[in-house]
Amino acid sequence: MASLSSYLFSTLSKVGSIGGSGIPDFHYTIGDKIEAFAGKGIWDVHHSTRTNDAKQEATVFVLAKARGSSYTAVAQNTLKRMRTLRHPGILRYLEGAETAEAVYIATEPVTPLTQALDVDKSDELKQWGLYKIAETMRFINEDCKLIHANLSAASVFVTKAGEWKLGGLELVDSPTPATATGGSSSQQQQAYRYYTGVIPGYSARMAPELEGQKWDVVEKAKPGAVDGWYLACLVHEVYNGGLRSASQLQSQGQIPATLWALCQRLLMPDLRRRMSPSEFLQTASRQGGFLDSEFIKASIFLENIAVKEENEKAAFFSGLDALIPGFPQAFSKFKILPELLKLMEFGGGDAKVLSGIIQIGKGLDEQEYNDLVTPAIVQLFSSNDRALRFSLLEYMDSFIQAIPSAVVSKRVFPNFVTGFLDTAPAIREATVKASLAIAPKLGQKTLNSDLVKQLVRLVADPEPGIRTNALICIGKLCTAKEGVLGLDGDGVSESSHRYVICPALLQAFRDPFPPVRSASLAVSTACASKWEAPEIARRVIPCLSPLLIDGEKPVRTAALKCLNAMVSRVEAYSQTLPDTMAKKVVAPANASATVPAGQASGSAQAEAAASMAASDTWGGWAVSSLSSTFSGALSLASSSLPIGQQQPQMQQPLSTPIAAEVSGSEKSKVFASATLSKPAAAAASGTSGSGWEFNDDAWGNDDPVGKGWDDNDDEDGWNPHVLSTESSTPAAIAATAATTTSSSYTLSAGPKSGGMTMSSTQQRPLLQPTAAPAGSSMPAAFKASLKLAGSTANNTRKPATGEPGSTTTTTTTTTPRRKGLGAMKLGGGGASKNTPPSNLDDFF
């Protein structure tokens, strides 16, 4: 015995050493031996892989011819039957070879049933396994007219899916012996007659007719009657363990009652009354029978789904989700899942099929998911079937998290983004909803450059529901924090929000569909912190204001909430600004020094700002600001005339009528005091004034001394159209004339030479609204309401030379006549320190 063992070991060593390369026409590498099967059959079972593809697994059965001719004969019979018998229930043959040393058979990767039962003792798998074995035996007995004669736990193997596959074809043969050419019986071809002795443990389960060598009874028996006995032996081994003697078959043990009744009929000694595997399958599948279960029905339906009607498929898949949790995990993973994926790939599935795939996928680890589910789902995204794409989008959040980000970005997203452009509204809407699920798998660039822009484009979609959902999706993406959606990096960038999203929100404020307006307001409120405060003040609030009186109450409520959020944002920003943006310019000590006009205007603005800040009440700073603003406005207008063509300013206004006579010596002083001089602002700027000041009540030096004024003189107003071309610039000419009340002054010669008196009442011009000069800094409300009126004058006067008492130099500038207080002088950035208060101050 020791010498035989050493011989077998050396032979097997040679077999293992030559592997897949030394065996002719055999392309599998023999791996480790499965020790659990040792002694259970005549074969040595090894794990194996294909020579040129290590990922393709297989199982290799090896029998050394050195064991004897009988072993070689049954091994050769097995190889022949494996090549010719093909059935889903028979162990799938891959490749076989025979050499002078051994016989090799490569099959699909399987595990011996004796080993599988120790790992998974699921009743569902046992039921399904017995169903498959009985169905396979019916194929062998009735369709092939053969007898198996070796059905036992050692001849059944289990796949990764938990399905039982029939092997052990060593004794398979026809019940009718073949006849040779010469007419003699060739009984040696019936293996079950002569080679039962080589099968380990066969005597304990041998059928009575074979044990009694009743070959004529076997030949006349109904198909499958012999194998019915061996099916009962298999049931006993499955539920009660190994079979050591035939007497154990009479004990029920752990066999279920519904199954035990059938076993009794399978063990009938009389072949005519014994139940065949086909009859067993038919009886056990009846209502209330052993094989009547939802698990078996679902498994049978999946195997035959290709020939099922559409209504049958719909009914099956509607209840599949409820059945999957009760199925064995291995069976769901390797049997149901491939069938569902195959169904989806060829366009026969819908959302319910995809739901079943996703539910099974939840029980897989990451590696299994990537190997089984991910390739199929990625391929499904490239399908043009709208129903399939809609199902993928609907269940996106259930499976996308298990797919690697690199695969999503490169293979899923390019097909996913086409849904935004689909002509079917249902696809576009489903794509929008699925964007939240796929966003965490996208990179920063893809998120901002592709996804956000596609969503913003749908804000203008023809379908109002799609516009609403697009806005909601944008809002969730913009407000998503790390850990909520798990966006890569910082999520939506600041530039995308400012230049892409904000314009879309402002556009949505004017959408005719109320839910769109409400959604845009809600998104704007949630994203208030992302808006720039200047943009809020200039763009958002003006667009937001009409929605406060919207016809829909939800819109008004959302608008008010949004406005409060925006105002709070602007208020916080305003606290960071300085009190004034103007730069205060300190005037030089010498009033005659030259100061640029821009600095003089800035000084006035700074003083106005300081006055506003120092005031306790709104009235105080309003008046102070008003005076400064008027002064600044007039100064701005006065600078528009060219140098040399500007109106001289009168320093001393005539505030009361002249009642006393003036002597000849004093007359010179009077007119000398009225000599033209530059105002402070004009002197500072190096130019003369171009108009009349508000406080310019003094008479000009253009009237000849010694001549009296008549009524017509004072009635003549300032007509800008009679000015010479040198002084008729737009900034220097006052606007329209106004009516006056009260009579004019009358001047007459006094009793003394050179004297004159003034009588009648003082003339006061009325104020009428008029347009403000261009470029003025005067507030618009006051610009429109303040202007001094006067009558037009069609003639101009020049001072007479050589008249007595004339001490002023004759000027070549033609000056328009004025009346009363005189026309307004649009000049100077502010009144000089020596200028008396004007009548405008008295007015306020």
Automatic annotation (TrEMBL):
Positions of the Protein kinase domain: 32-296
Origin: domain of life: Eukaryota
Q: Which InterPro entries match?
A: ARM-like, ARM-type_fold, CIK-Related_Protein, Kinase-like_dom_sf, Prot_kinase_dom
Stretches of Polar residues bias are at 756-765
Q: Where is this region: Disordered?
A: 682-777, 793-844
Q: Locate the compositionally biased regions of type Low complexity.
A: 682-691, 724-749
GO MF annotations in UniProt: ATP binding; protein kinase activity
The identity of this protein, by name, is Nuclear aminoacylation-dependent tRNA export pathway component
Q: What is the lineage of its organism?
A: Eukaryota, Fungi, Fungi incertae sedis, Zoopagomycota, Kickxellomycotina
